[in-house]
Design brief:
It is a single chain. By secondary structure, the protein is α/β, with parallel strands linked by helices. 55% of the residues lie in helices and 8% in strands. α8 links the parallel β4 and β5. The longest helix is centred in the first third of the chain and has 22 residues. The radius of gyration is 25 Å and the shape is globular.
Length: 295
């Protein structure tokens, strides 16, 4: 048997050391992912109303962005979507077991309050809301589901309106309850208030109708939820960069005023290319977008 020389011994040792480092990297989470409360392999339920339902149904809805943002930061989770349009705190309490607890998630985000206020006489008064939300949180915690409470987003982007003034008491309760129960809180209302205070355009900048999110609003919501989950600012910026290239993640519907002569000409031009007018306009707009420099 040949005796290993000092040089070959050093070479073998170096190879073994490199292999150990690679193996350790494969099983050890990065510092960023290690600081995130939600861990790979866990499931997250998203309980809410139409904002949450759209958060799952749209390519850039906030629920899908949260899942994608976690994955970008090395944490792969399974979503349990549980948003239903029009639902209030009493509705969510009634279906909590069927839609959330029976699925045995590790985590649950709770987004509730907009309809309780927005629906007026058909809404839920503050004291009843407090009872319902407390029961939801207590039942989830008793089932070993960790809860992240989301403050309700504004009802209209004009913050001083009557609905938002009323909503303030509901959100104040949510913040107090989160402290009392030891739950993480994503203060989305505060995040939106800050963004609305800086907007430079008239009308809605973050929603399509004052309540339901456009991509900018979904970005704010998802960023706030990720922050509550322990993702740091660098991780959130990394997630945002990935979100920007989501296929079919945004669209624009426009009305183009024209004369009847222009309308007939547009019909003829589209028909000459074998297209209807909406398809023709969409094709032209897409071509123009592809010529725009990336932001």
């Amino acid at each position: 048997m040949k005796t290993m020389t000092r040089t070959s011994y050093r070479a073998v040792s170096a190879v073994m050391a490199c292999a150990s480092v690679v193996a350790l990297a494969l099983v050890t989470p990065t510092k960023a992912s290690a600081d995130i409360a939600v861990q790979s392999g866990q499931s997250v339920a998203f309980l809410g109303d139409s904002i949450t339902a759209q958060g799952w149904s749209k390519p850039t809805g906030y629920v899908k962005l949260v899942v994608a943002g976690l994955a970008t930061n090395g944490v792969k989770v399974t979503a349990v979507p549980a948003g239903i349009s029009g639902h209030k705190s009493n509705d969510m309490l009634a279906r909590l077991d069927k839609d959330v607890l029976s699925k045995k998630p590790n985590w649950m985000t709770l987004s509730c309050g907009v309809n309780d206020v927005w629906h007026g006489e058909r809404g839920v008064p503050l004291e009843a809301y407090k009872t319902n939300i407390t029961a939801i949180v207590d039942q989830a915690l008793a089932a070993n589901v960790k809860v992240i409470i989301l403050t309700s987003t504004p009802i209209g982007e004009d913050l001083p309106n009557a609905n938002n003034v009323k909503l303030a008491d509901y959100n104040a309760f949510l913040r107090d309850l989160a402290k009392q129960k030891g739950c993480a809180v994503a203060d989305l209302n505060a995040d939106f208030a800050a963004a609305i205070g800086k907007k430079t355009v008239k009308g809605n900048a973050f929603t399509v109708d004052g309540v339901h999110m456009n991509p900018a609003g979904d970005f704010i919501m998802a960023s706030g939820v990720l922050r509550a989950m322990g993702v740091d600012n660098a991780g959130i910026e990394k997630a945002k960069a990935a979100w920007m290239d989501t296929p079919n993640g945004a669209s624009v519907a426009v009305t183009i005023p024209m004369t009847p002569r222009q309308w007939f000409a547009l019909q003829d031009t589209a028909a000459a290319q074998g297209k209807d007018v909406p398809t023709f306009i969409s094709t032209q707009a897409t071509a123009a977008l592809n010529l725009m420099p990336a932001k």
